[in-house]
Amino acid sequence: MEKPLSYLPFGIIKGTRSSYLKLYLKDCLTGMKDFIKDDTIDVVVTSPPYNIGLNYNSYKDTLPRKEYLDWIKMVGTEIKRVLKNDGSFFLNIGNRPKDQWLAWDVANTIREDFTLQNVIHWVKSIAINKQDVGNYQNVIDDIAVGHFKPVVSNRFLNDCHEYIFHFTKEGNTALDKLPVRIPYQDKTNIRRWKSTKGDKRDRGNTWFIPYKTIQKRAERPHPSTFPVKLPEMCIRLHGLKQDLVAMDPFLGIGSTAIASNKLGVSFIGFEIDKGYIDEIVIRLNSAIN
Ligand SMILES: C[S@@+](CC[C@H](N)C(=O)[O-])C[C@H]1O[C@@H](n2cnc3c(N)ncnc32)[C@H](O)[C@@H]1O
């Protein structure tokens, strides 16, 4: 069994697959200014607080909208400073039933510093009627898979997706689409299209990444996380290479840190709540062991 991770001064975690994982108990704006040099980060995968009154331990998620967007703008500008020119900034955010502009208001704020290169739809749950898909052999009946928070209202639909906005500095960052490709359903396509490379097609911008089924609320120690597979796919899509450095300014319980460790990518992250940082160390230990 590998040695348990130790949490060292300045947040450096030892014993991981990555050359380094640095987790700072610190406000991200101060942290980025103090610890990260210009043009040094390859890929940012993050999800900021959505300002929807969630119960985080330390952060108050209820700012007036303008104040919230001004703060998001400052974080975006700081990310621009630290990101390399060919870097990728994946920003995950969702809406509320009563506030369908929230995600787009945030994206529009970031737009002042970045180009929106791709919009990815993170699909948490999907329903497929057999009659709509014809002869697909793998779909033998109507199916509904994945989890979502049900909306109790006759006005709004259950919200089964969130956005991942892929921002880059100039809109021309080359991606590595191969690792996130999926096999063709109709294998005749492999011969039909000249550009086809084996039995894999571009996954497109709808990513079905369900939450794990949990039995008890205690299994979710944070009110708003994304599955580790989400940052893993973003980092793979940006392209794995030697000495890659990933960052998450809003660590939460560290899904991007765990994905980075899994991929052997160096990582820097910030979180203002000590309890969440402690949880990251527990999750990293169990991921490694
Ligand atoms: C949406 S959650 C991120 C969850 C994360 N993606 C995960 O999967 O665990 C946002 C996090 O940002 C933290 N936060 C809020 N303000 C912050 C700040 N100024 N600097 C760093 N972290 C902050 C909150 O405590 C919260 O844990």
TrEMBL record:
The keyword Lipoprotein does not apply. SUPFAM superfamilies: S-adenosyl-L-methionine-dependent methyltransferases. One of its GO terms (molecular function) is site-specific DNA-methyltransferase (cytosine-N4-specific) activity. Keywords: DNA-binding, Methyltransferase, Restriction system, S-adenosyl-L-methionine, Transferase. Its EC number is 2.1.1.113. It catalyses: a 2'-deoxycytidine in DNA + S-adenosyl-L-methionine = an N(4)-methyl-2'-deoxycytidine in DNA + S-adenosyl-L-homocysteine + H(+). This is Type II methyltransferase. Belongs to the N(4)/N(6)-methyltransferase family. N(4) subfamily. The gene is mboIIM_1. Pfam families: N6_N4_Mtase.
